[in-house]
Automatic annotation (TrEMBL):
The lineage of its organism: Bacteria, Bacillati, Actinomycetota, Actinomycetes, Micrococcales. Residues 61-210 form the RecA family profile domain. CDD domains: RadA_SMS_N (cd01121). It holds the Pfam family Zn_ribbon_LapB. A motif (RadA KNRFG motif) lies at residues 247-251. The gene is radA. This is DNA repair protein RadA. Residues 33-48 have a biased composition (Low complexity). ATP binds at residues 90-97. Residues 344-457 are annotated as: Lon-protease-like. Keywords: ATP-binding, DNA damage, DNA repair, DNA-binding, Hydrolase, Metal-binding, Nucleotide-binding, Stress response, Zinc, Zinc-finger. Signal peptide: none annotated. The middle region has homology to RecA with ATPase motifs including the RadA KNRFG motif, while the C-terminus is homologous to Lon protease.
Length: 457
């Protein structure tokens, strides 16, 4: 008898309150196994399973097939690959089941036979959701089952073209000990499902729970076994949902899929930039636009700031949708120019989008300077650039792509770092100003009117 950690899989001969491997408390569970090494004897390969030259391997067997959900296919690299196993993880209630039910329905409409296995909800609950989002299809088979053996048996009887298991932590195998969701059970279930998916050539999607720190629950081995690991993210107070791939054997890992979650279901967003801009066309103090990148997709985002004098000691700092560390750095840089140390500062993005890249530094600094001086910037002004601790503005990658997205949104004025426009094609009709420091930009836009660039249009 041994004890296995449910977080990291560390094994020990006796029970301990704290796992020696990962340091978590109360995660050691009893499991079978003596840990004795077993010697495997060599044996000849079966007929048809011998090694062959790589030039003779049929590459068409690994070609992706579109699912009909454009943003889902974008992240996967084109669609589902026969025999591929995808792990989709996300917080409870973010919309994982709704997304997969929509994917299953669209695949069923094209003639594919889809098996949806639910271990968390009853068949009636899934049916009600399918009615609400319009996912009722004859080729969509539904099974409320938690036994791995029965699920594997359904693959032989139903012969589906696509398999979805919601979720891997709810399935269990009678061949091994342990509770459903434990390390031993998750390892056995994942191995069984992956083996069946490869043998039958069935693209399979596994829904995974996540822990409080955002990692996939269960052994880390689960992420190594599957072909694709996706994270479904979103704020409960926002309709925007984002799908990211942290591992993808069939495509890139820098693509991001955007979805709009509504009462009628979930829909792909080919152009999500409109969600992150305010509807008002009138310029207001404390607002500035920037173009951030999610993967390879540029998105125009509005940054808003409010600066108010504080009467109770040190100023308060509240940040929403931005990296609080970078905002604090921008406040420190600006404090030497306009003095923000004793003020309350509030900085946020529009639409609930989260920005982490340094390209938004210049927009944050301009929004803060505009709010502190109570002076407006140009209407629909975009600022793109990273700011150093000395106040120097640095160029950022993919400037041509960012400026093209800004021009597509009707933006005609922009401020960038010195040298950022070299060897790139700038949008026609867009007036751009290159600056070296934050102080130069503030004097240009918030100083005397004579020093400001001519307004386009």
């Amino acid at each position: 008898m041994a004890y296995t950690c449910t977080q990291c899989g560390h094994r020990t001969a006796k029970w301990l309150g704290r796992c020696p491997g990962c340091g978590e408390w109360g995660t050691l569970e009893e499991s079978s196994g003596t840990g004795t090494a077993i010697k495997t004897k060599a044996k000849p390969a079966p007929a048809g399973q011998k090694a062959s030259p790589i030039t003779e391997v049929d590459a068409t067997l690994a070609q992706s097939r579109p699912t009909g959900v454009s943003e889902f296919d974008r992240v996967l690299g084109g669609g589902l690959v026969p025999g591929a196993v995808i792990l989709l993880a996300g917080e409870p209630g973010v919309g994982k089941s709704t997304l997969l039910l929509d994917v299953c329905a669209r695949a069923a409409r094209t003639g594919s036979r889809v098996l949806y296995v639910t271990g968390e909800e009853s068949a009636g609950q899934v049916r009600l959701r399918a009615e609400r989002i319009g996912a009722l299809e004859e080729n969509l088979l539904l099974a409320a089952q938690t036994d791995l053996g029965i699920v594997l048996g359904m693959l032989d009887t139903e012969k589906p073209d696509v398999l979805v298991i919601d979720s891997v932590q709810t399935l269990s195998s009678s061949d091994v000990d342990g509770v459903p969701g434990g390390v031993t059970q998750v390892r056995e279930v994942a191995a069984g499902v992956i083996r069946a998916a490869k043998d039958h050539g069935i693209p399979t999607v596994l829904v995974g729970h996540i822990t409080k720190d955002g990692t996939v629950a269960g052994p880390r081995l689960l992420e190594h076994l599957v072909d694709v690991v996706c994270q479904f993210e979103g704020d409960r107070h926002s309709r925007l949902r984002m799908l990211r791939a942290s591992k993808n054997r069939f495509g890139p890992t820098d693509e991001v899929g955007c979805f709009d979650m509504t009462e009628a279901g979930i829909h792909s967003l080919a152009d999500p930039s409109g969600l992150f801009l305010s509807r008002s066309r009138i310029a207001a103090p404390g607002t500035c636009l920037t173009v951030t990148q999610e993967g390879r997709r540029p998105m125009t985002v509005e940054v808003q700031a409010l600066v108010d004098s504080s009467s109770n000691g040190p100023g308060r700092r509240t940040v929403t949708g931005l990296d609080s560390g970078r905002v604090a750095m921008m406040i420190a840089v600006l404090s030497k120019l306009i003095g923000l140390g004793s003020h309350d500062v509030f900085v946020a993005t529009v639409g609930g989008v989260r920005i982490a890249e340094p390209a938004s530094d210049l927009a944050i600094a301009l929004a803060l300077a505009s709010a502190a001086s109570d002076r407006k910037l140009y209407s629909r002004l975009v600022a793109i650039g990273e700011i150093s601790l000395s106040g120097e503005i640095r160029p950022v990658p993919d400037m041509e792509l960012r400026l093209a997205e800004a021009a597509r949104q009707g933006i005609t004025n922009g401020v960038v770092a010195r040298g950022a426009l070299e060897n790139i094609r700038t949008p026609e009709g867009m007036r751009l100003k290159e600056c070296d420091t934050v102080q130069e930009v503030i004097e240009l836009l918030l100083g005397s009117p004579e020093s400001a660039p001519e307004k386009a249009g």
